[in-house]
Specification:
The chain is built from five helices and five strands; from the N terminus they run βαβαβαββαα. Helix 1 packs across helix 5. The two termini are 26 Å apart. It has a five-stranded antiparallel sheet. By secondary structure, it is α+β, with helices and mostly antiparallel strands. InterPro entries: DUF302, TT1751-like_sf, UCP021774.
């Protein structure tokens, strides 16, 4: 099983970020957190790297269902979506979302299976919308 649902876009990083936010929103996800890994590593370690942004996406009804099924699931929320420049192709941007099946596999909680399937369906729809 892959840990990510992913696509590659032939577009700029900024355009990919904007399109990713729109696609997530269309599927009922809000972005609760944003971590600019490139800026953080530059500021803290003076290390250079390509654009790399982690968006913490949350669909409140689905998050509520997951937390109701297993209170510890909050350790694995929100769903991380990474938008990053492809270090091997400067004209490409990668968008990768966490595979929600990990929530079920890590917890071995059968109640999470239908929730993970619904989250996966919505994240896949968002990723697929980026290609259009």
């Amino acid at each position: 099983m892959s840990i990510a649902l992913a696509t590659t876009l032939k577009t700029s990083f900024d355009d990919a970020v904007a399109r990713t936010r729109e696609a997530l929103s269309a599927q009922g996800f809000g972005v609760l957190t944003e971590i600019d890994v490139k800026a953080t590593l530059k500021n803290k370690l003076d290390a250079d790297m390509e654009n790399y942004l982690i968006l913490g996406a949350c669909n409140p009804p689905l998050a509520h269902r997951a937390i109701t099924a297993n209170r510890q699931i909050g350790l694995l929320l929100p769903c991380n979506v990474v938008v990053r420049s492809d270090p091997d192709d400067p004209e490409s941007t990668l968008v990768e979302a966490m595979n929600p099946q990990l929530l079920v596999d890590v917890t071995d909680e059968p109640e999470l299976q239908p929730i993970a399937e619904e989250v996966a369906e919505k994240l896949k729809a968002a990723i697929e919308a980026l290609g259009n």
